[in-house]
Each structure stands twice: as structure tokens, then as C-alpha cells.
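Complex 305.
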Amino acid sequence: MPLSASLTCRLDAPAKLNLCLELLGRRDDGFHHLRSLMATIGLRDTLRVTAEAPGSPVTLKLLGAPHLTRGVPTDGSNLVVRALESLRQEAQIDRGASVQLTKRVPSQAGLGGGSSDAAAALVAGAHVWELGWPRERLMEIGGRLGSDIPFFVAAIADRRRRAAVVAGRGEQVTPTPWVAGLPVVVVKPAGGLSTAAVYGRCQPEDYAGVEGRDRTNDAATALASGDWRRLATTLRNHLQPAAVRLAPWLEGVRRAFDRCGCAGHQLSGSGSAYFGLFPTMSEARRAAVRLRALRVGQTLATTIG
Ligand SMILES: C[C@](O)(CO)[C@H](O)COP(=O)(O)OP(=O)(O)OC[C@H]1O[C@@H](n2ccc(N)nc2=O)[C@H](O)[C@@H]1O
Ligand SMILES: Nc1ncnc2c1ncn2[C@@H]1O[C@H](COP(=O)(O)OP(=O)(O)OP(=O)(O)O)[C@@H](O)[C@H]1O
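Predicted structure with CDM bound:
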């Protein structure tokens, strides 16, 4: 059988927002039980993976603007390389891969950039190495590398899964219907936040009393109907108080969204990116212009899905 040494796969690795993020308690392993409505947005890295001959290493070339690639490792600690190394260990193969990763998603933003890259690497790697594995197996491998990765594997492998209710540590992914094109404005302040540091500053008071109401389910119902006003009333992020304790300047971003008349806005994941929902794309673009003038960070008007 001829080796398909030149087989190449190019995939988008989208960013995500946590439209609702509820913490339910701390686990014995130090992680938190959560439930969250996650959805991809129209901001994405691009990954190109080419299969190389047996015995070759996994190599990575990083492309993108300096402010986006700064701090992103190019060695074996990059999540893309870790994902491909895990894949070939699991498959017990020694095929190599050369990867070109173009960064557009900012890091330390709560937008899941590195996790999405890792998920795209798993999907692309399985394709170019012709493993023929089901999505579920790739999600399981991804879950060992990071809590957000199973969601992204599902979203990248099947566009219908670009929105999901995520539970457990992040490994339980239940796709939920979404209506394309809901406008959002995302702001990434100059400062970033470490996910571990934000979880580390979380206190039980930040999420006490949540048991009674499943706001994530309400948010999923609103997203399925495409009703942005209803979705705006279901926003919640239990990590936001901890993020604000660590980075008080986030209050300035919150106030900026208020000043733009945005009806629903919050932090995404562990931050520092912040987003707001808008009824139309023209209103989102107008708000983005105002937010840029307020100089709160890199600002993008885009859509969910
Ligand atoms: C904030 C979110 O992005 C929301 O989707 C995720 O919960 C975090 O996902 P992630 O970046 O893939 O996180 P991981 O790489 O698995 O873990 C980073 C750190 O976050 C904390 N962590 C993460 C997930 C979770 N359910 N509970 C936690 O307490 C742990 O301190 C962990 O050391
Ligand atoms: N492919 C990658 N892209 C970006 N960062 C990476 C990558 N691989 C490893 N990293 C490291 O991981 C750190 C966090 O990156 P990432 O963008 O995933 O975090 P995040 O925005 O906090 O995402 P999340 O929403 O998953 O918490 C970076 O600061 C960087 O050192």
C-alpha cells in the first residue's frame, strides 16, 4: 500500500463563548463540576496538518500577528503537538506530521484558542494518518489534555455541534440546537488571565444557591429559538467575580458595554475576553466602533455558530 506521505488536512479551529457558565462545586481532584452552554463564533485559527513518513517528528510552524503569537509555545508544550503526540501514542504509529498553525484567536482570553487548536489537530491527525476513528474516541483523548477540548472536537468534526451543553469537568458534551447568525461583539483587553489562577480565586459564595435553577438549560432553550433578548436574560458566569478580583480593570470593560446600551454582556469562560449580544449585525458593528473609541481592547463584531 503506498504511503500517503503528502496527505494534507486544513481545518478551522474556532473560538468559543460560554453563554452561560455555572459552577456546581469543587471536586476531590481540585477541578470544578460545571455546566455551561458553549458555542463557537466566527473567529478562528487555521491549522494545516500534513502527514510525514514513519520516523519523522511532529513539527510546528506558527504564523500570525506578533500580539497573537507572543507567549504561544512552538515546542512540544504547544497543545497541537501534545494532541498529535497523544494520538500517535494511542494509535501506536510512528508517522510524523508537519503542522502550520495560523493564530487569530487571542490567548489567555477564555475563548478556548489553544483547546480548539488541539481539537483540530486531533481531527486532522486522525484524517491524515487514516485512523478512521469515531469522533467519540478523539473526544476522549482530547479530554485527557484539557477540559474544553471534547467540545471543540465535536464542533469541528460536525458543524451541527457548534453549540453544546457541557457538564462534568467539561468532558460531557450534549449538542444543542442553535440559530445561525446571532450577532456578538467580543473585546479582548490587553491583559490576559490564566484559567488556573481564576479558578483558584473562586470562592463557594460566587456560586452558592445555584442548585435550584438550571440557567444553562434556559440559555440553551433561548439559543435554540434564536431569541437574543431572551438569551441576554439567561447570561451568567460564575467565574466572573473571581476574574474581577484578579483583574479589577475588567470593571472598565463591563462599564463600556453598558455605555454602548448593550442589553446582555459578560466575561467568556475565565476571561479576559468579554462579549455582548446584539439584535442585529449593524447594531453590533456600531457598538464595536464605540468600544474601539473607548480603547478597552481588541474589538470584533461577529456571529455565534
Ligand atoms: C473556563 C473554561 O474554558 C470554560 O469553558 C474551562 O472550564 C477551562 O477549560 P480548559 O482551559 O480546557 O482547562 P484545563 O486545561 O482542563 O484546566 C486548567 C485549570 O482550570 C481549572 N479547572 C478547569 C476545568 C474545570 N472544570 N475545573 C477547574 O477547576 C483547574 O485548576 C485546571 O488546572
Ligand atoms: N496552540 C496554542 N495556542 C494558544 N496557546 C497555547 C497553545 N498551546 C499552548 N498554549 C499555552 O496555553 C496558554 C493558554 O492558552 P489558551 O488560548 O488556550 O487559553 P485561554 O484563552 O485561557 O482558553 P480557555 O478558554 O480554554 O481557558 C497560553 O498562554 C499558551 O502558553
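The pocket of adenosine-5'-triphosphate (ligand 2) is lined by residues 71-73, 78-80, 107-115, 117, 148, 195, 269-270 (CB under 6 Å).
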